Amino acid sequence: MSKFGVLCATLFLLSITQEINLFAAEKQTTAKKKIYHKGWIDFNKNGRMDIYENPSAPLEERVKDVLSQMTLEEKIAELNLIPYYEKQDSLIRAKIRLGEIGALLKANGAALNLSLQREAVETHRLGIPLMFHEDVIHGYRTILPIPLGESCCWDRELVKRGAALAADEATAAGIQLTYAPMVDVSNDPRWGRIMETSGEDPVLTSALAMARVQGFQGENLKDKNTMMACVKHFAGYAALRGGRDYQNTDFSLRDLQECYLPPFQAAVNAGVGSVMCSYTSYDGEPVTMNRFMNHEILREQLKFKGLLMSDWTTFNHAVREGAAADGKEAAARGMNSGLEMDMSSSQYSRHLAKLVEEKAVLASAVTEAAKHALMVKFQVGLFDDPYSYFDVKREKQTLLSEENRNLACSLTTSTMVLLKNQDGLLPLAQSCKVAVVGPFASDKTNLLGSWSMQGRTEEAVSVAEGLKEVMPDTDFDIVGCKFDGVSKDYIASATLAAAGSDVIIACLGESVGTIGEAVTSAKISLPKEQIALLKSLKETGKKVVTVLFNGRPLVLEEVLEESDAVLEAWYPGTMGGKAIALLLSGKENPSGKLTQTFPRHSGQIPLAYNERRTFAKIEPMDLAEGPQFPFGFGLSYTQFDYSDLRVSNDEIHIGDSLKVSVNVKNTGKCTGREVVQLYIRDEVATIIPREKELRDFTSVTLAPGEQQTVHFTLPPTAFMVYDRKMEKVIEPGVVAIMVGANSRDLSSRKIVIK
């Protein structure tokens, strides 16, 4: 055949192939359209409305129906949670079409996730929708302060609104479940993940856990702006030795019940839909394989009825640390312990079918796990409308909206803690000349903090930008540098600028790379170069305001010596610079209170306000007594006076409630918000009592000269302790009732429980 003939034949075949493909595509499109009906979707494409496809049918019946139609392999697929990577897009889509994936994480964006969802709904035999997960830890695109910073607002409603903001943005970008809140209780600031916690106290952490779950999940999980929360890390992850992440833990059942479990119980009581297991162990066994933890504690004691998942590749870690011979053994032990969804390791998808065949795992256990995995999909409405979360227009309107930025700014100002304000240096006079120096003066890279995910550095408001916006009539000389740029030359130039100013603002702190997961620091103080800068600034004779950016308590003795005022800003998020400016200018009054004790030296760690009492409290010989700043501490531009602490009865019977009241008066010159804290202490108990324990808190906003009576009611549960048998009881005896501004400065009354 001639070349021309070959060409013609080729073109003819291409034409025929194209027509066949077009016909097939048209046929497929027609088929797709046939599954969509008014008020329901024919997910299994059988031409009739099955129970699981009926939005009006009871939830339990819908789940039961779809389970009855699933093969063992399809049930296992629902337990397979894998990450999405763009470079693996084709492979992942193929797995979706084959029905091998139940959920995805790291897939972000309404358009992308809509296309992935269509692959599942329109090609899978049963059309089971995918669920999209993400780490929405402290905001999605509009980044809020890190959780440790956010907790310093001590405001349940504000924290709830912050979580709702994050849910609104994340759902607009196609996400239905977040790996938050983290409710681990820690007293070791060397641990990098302390920035994700709400501090050292189980009562405060429990209150904020409940607020965050309510904020994420809203009144109805099917609302398009709500998302399922996943409380983590169950349980005792923060009990790490030396603050070294991923180390195995060693803590008692008493520690578990008194300290680590209450926030999980609060989250369960708030209706949290899912729980994530800890990387670490209990009693020498990884939590992901620990039936005592996953069944007896989580299911039976806490009454959790949702989905239990692993952390990232946890089964693989178990093999590496010698807790399982291989992935197959890890999968068997995980399923038999009650662990349901496997994140990223794919050990369930590889081995569960064979394990069921070998009777090493019961088929009923797989079915129960799949039931919970399907249940959360029904709860968020994916079987009613699998595409409701993928609205590109809504995504564009919602992410980083003006409303969200304003709320973020309001929340951020409430989280910052004024640690020092000598001679009332703050707020700054509007007419003064101010030098703004240090690595955080113009920096945006570190403002967002760890786990900021979809946050964009360029969208953050720097300190320099915030000051210029809020104080336009003030003369600012901005002399910033990169974090690693605090050289001798920079110190000289910054000091020169400072010498010509009235006040110096030194913006100092930790690089974001020194805090977060898999990070531990033995030294928790500012870099020596920053201390050298601070000393040089102080030598100018000018007043120095230090603004701190960090994700943990720091040792601050040198900072306090060289500063006239110190503001703890944490990693403040997108609106950090503006929030700082509002506080420094006096347009907002600081009201944040520490939720973590600040030590004088790392040698005091671990350190917490609620340690058990001892007959002889021996402090380090080379340190002043006690912490640098106690739990609950925070200054204001005004002053508050506490008086007339009262209790409803000096004697109560076991099972009685107690009413407590105290007068709080603003004795200063400006309006301010005060967080009023209530603590108790058993004077004598069967188990050595703690120094004090937070039991409740509230806040009041008072104008100058205004007084308000603050009321608390302590229910009988507030006086409960675990006895020798680890049973919760109320013991008769003397209890101190203490109310005040922080865990150190308290008024006290004693009552008798009979």
Question: What is this structure, in a nutshell?
Answer:
This protein is α/β, with parallel strands linked by helices and 754 residues long.
Straight-line N-to-C gap:
109 Å
The CATH topology of the domain at 414-604 turns out to be Rossmann fold
Note poorly predicted spans.
1-31
> Which structural category fits the helices and strands?
alpha/beta
Q: Please give the number of β-strands.
A: 28
> Within the largest sheet, what's the order of strands?
11-8-7-6-5-4-3-12
CATH architecture group name of the domain at 414-604? 3-Layer(aba) Sandwich
Q: State the major sheet.
A: 8 strands, parallel
Q: Tell me, what is the CATH class of the domain at 414-604?
A: Alpha Beta
Assign a percent range to the helix content: 25-40%
Radius of gyration: 29 Å
Overall pLDDT level: 94
Separate helix tally: 22
Give the CATH H-level superfamily of the domain at 414-604.
Answer: Glycoside hydrolase family 3 C-terminal domain
Overall body shape: globular
Strand fraction band?
Answer: 15-25%
